[in-house]
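CHAIN AND CONFORMATION:

***
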Amino acid sequence: SRPASRSMFTGHVREFCILLGGILLLGWLVFGAHSTSRPLLHPLGYIMIPLVIWGAIRFGQVGALATTVLVAAIAVWHTSLGHGVFVRDTVHSSLVTVQVFIAVVTFTALMVASLISERRRAEELLRSSEASYRSLFESITDAVYIQDQDGRFLDINPAVCAMYGMTRDEILGKTPAALADHAKVDMEATRAHFQRTLAGLPTRYDWWGRRKNGESFPAEVSLTKAVYNGQDVVIAVARDQSDRQRLQTQMQQAQKLESLGVLAGGIAHDFNNLLAAVLGNASLVRMQLATESPLQAHVHTIETAAVRAAELTRQMLAYSGRGKFMVQQLGLSNLVDEMATLLGSVISKKATLKFHFADQLPLVEGDATQLRQVVMNLITNASDAIGDRPGTITVSTGVMFADEPYLSSMPFNDGLAGGKYVYLEVADTGCGMSADTQSRIFDPFYTTKFTGRGLGLAATLGIVRGHRGAITVASTPGEGSTFRLLLPAAESAALAPEMAPVPSAPLNGWRGHGTVLVVDDEPSVRLTAARVLETAGFSVLTAADGNDALEVFRRNADDVVLVLLDMMMPNLNGEETFVELRRIRSDVRVILSSGYDRREASRAVKGLAGFLQKPYRHTELIAAVRDAMARQNAKVPAHSGAQGR
C-alpha cells in the first residue's frame, strides 16, 4: 500500500543518513587528528571499509559508489592537510599510501556491490519463478497435489478444493484415503501406485473420489516424482472424469437406441408385409361371402386381430423414429387441456392430477395424435408409479432457451441445435426409480409391471426423436419421478406435406380398367394386391424387385396405367425404381406403399401419385388407386386410356 511504501522509503533515507554520518564521524577520528608519520597506525585507516561494505550491501551499487567517494574524499582532504594515519615523511609517500587505500576501498565496494547485485537478481528471478510457478499451479484446471513420502498433502491447488467441495485447510496434512470412495477404491492398490512412483516410475490409474456432500465421482490420476523444498515428493494430477463418463454413457445409449431402432423398424416392416397379406385376404374372403354368412364373424375376428397387430407395429415404428406423422402447428397446452377429462379417467383413483400451463406458449410442429399418445403414456406411467397410495401428478408446460451444451447433456439427444424449446413436464410423487431402472426404461419390451409390454415409453422416445425433440428423466427412489419433454418451437407457418391425405369418397362399386404393375418383394403381398385389383377390373402384372419391375415395365409401358411400388426392396429400392420408371415413361403414375410414414416417403420420393400405408384393407387399396388416377390432372396418353366408371 502507499503508506507502507512511504514508511519503507523513509526508513531507507534514515539509514542512509546514519551511514553517511557514521563515515563522517569515523573519518574525522581517523584522518582529522594531527599526526606525523606513524607506520603502526597505518592499518587504522582501513577501519572505514566495513562502512563501505555496509553501504554496498544495503544500497547496492549506489551505496557503494556514494560511500567510496565520501571515504576517498575524507582521506585525500585530511592527508593533503597533513592529518591522519596516511601522512608520511614525504608528500609523494603520503599520496601513494592514500591511493593504495582508495584502490582497496573501491575494489572492495565494487566486488561486494557486484555480488550483492547478482544475489538480488538471483533472488528476484527466484521470486519471479516462484510467482510464475504459483500462478501456474493455481490456474491449472486439473487437481494437483504435492505429497510427501508418507502420502500427506503438502500443497494443493484451488482445483482440488473445487473438486471436493472442501477448504484448503480441510485437505492439507491428510492422505488420499481421506478423499477416496472406499466402496469403489482399492487403497492397497493406491498405495502400491504411490510407492512405485517414489521408486521413480511414473504411474497413471483410475480412481474414485468422494466429495464433501457425499457424491462419488470417477477420476484419472497421474503420479510423478519430483523435488520440493529439498525433499523428494510425489506430484499427483487428478482429472474429473464425470463429464467424459457421461458422454460415453450417452454415446453407448445412442448406439443402443440406434441399433434397437433399426431392429424394431426392420421387424415392423416385415411384420407389416405379413399383416398386409392377412388383411387383404380377409377382405377378399369377406367380399366373396354372403352378408348373412356365419363365417363373416370369423373374418371380422381375423381383421380385428390384424388391426391390433398393426397397432403394435406402429408402436415399434414409433420407437424407431419412423412412425406415421401428420405434421401441423399446434399448441401444447391446448392439446393437453383437451385431454384433461380423459387423463383424469385413466389415472389411479387415489392420484390427484394438477395442471400448470404457461401463458403465450409458442406453437410446435408435430403430429397431434402421436403427441397425445406421448402425454397418455407419461400420465399412465406416473399413475402406475403412485399405485394404491395417495399421490399427485403435476403436468406443466413452458418455454425455455436450451443451448447446445444443455441439450448435449441430455441422455437422449440426437445432435439437436440450440434455440427456443417448448417443454412438457410430468412429475409424480410415486415410488421413484433406481439408477439402473432409469437407464433401461426406454428400452423396448423392458417393463417393471406384471402386465406391461414395455413399449409405452419406448414408443414415447421414438415419437419425441421423430419430432426432433428430446426427453429426460430425473428420479429418486421413494421421492417420485419427473419427465421433461422438449420440442422445438415453430418459427414459421407449417408447410403442408407434399402428399396431404385426401378424404376418400365412398367407392360405390367403382371399377377401373387397364394394367397395374404391382412391385413387392413379399410374395403374399403381391398376390393379395393383385387379387384385389383384379376384382376392381384391372389387369395385373407383378414384379418381385426393382430390377424385375423395370424389365416388366419396359415390355408393357404402353399398357401400364399405374404402378403400386413397395418402398423397401432388395437390389433397387422404391426410390431408385421410381427414378428409373420415370426415365422410361415420364408420366407414369406411381403409388408408393410402405410400412413407414407418409412424411418419410414424401421426403425420399418426389412426384408420387399417392401413398398407401401398410398394412391396408382391400377398400383402402382400391380407394388409393381411384384417388391417384383422379388426382393426376396431367393429360393421359392415348395408349394408357384408363378410365374409372
About this structure: The longest strand covers residues 216-228.
